[in-house]
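mind reviewing this fold:
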Amino acid sequence: MEEKNFKHKIKINVRFSDLDVMRHVNNAAYLSYLEEARIAYFNDVLNMPKNSLNFGAIIARIEIDYLQPIVLGDKLEVLTRVSKIGNKSSDVEHLIIIKREKENIHAAAALTKLVSYDYKKQQSVPIPVNVKDKIKAFEETLAPSV
C-alpha cells in the first residue's frame, strides 16, 4: 500500500492503556485505531453527523499486517480508503503510520471487508446507490465492482 493512494487520514494519540506488558501497543488496540478511522472516513465521505451510529454495515473480515511496533509517545496517522465496492460488500484499506521527524514509518497495513447489513431483518442487503455514488466521487480510483 502506498500513502499517495489515500485521501483520508486521521491522527491518533497512543494512550498508556493501549500498551501491553512488552511496552508497545497491544495488537487489540490496532482494531480500535482502525474503527476510529473507519467511522471518521464514512462520517466525512457520506456527510453523516459526527456522532452518528446509523451506518448499515457489519464487519465480515479484518486482516492486519503488523510491520513495526508502536510505542507510547509515537504520533500516528491512520490513512483510510475504499479500494473496492461491490453489490453488498466493500474493501476498506488502512495504513497506520508513525510520524517521526521527517520520516513516515509504516507500522501496520490492514484490510477490512464490510458487508451492507439490515440490522432489523438480520441479513445482508445491497449497498445503497447514494452511498456508492458518494464513495466513488470521493475516491478517484476503485477496483472494478464485483
Notes: The helical segments are 27-45, 129-138. The first helix runs from residue 27 to 45. DSSP finds two helices and six strands in the chain. Residues 48 and 54 are 9 Å apart (CA to CA).
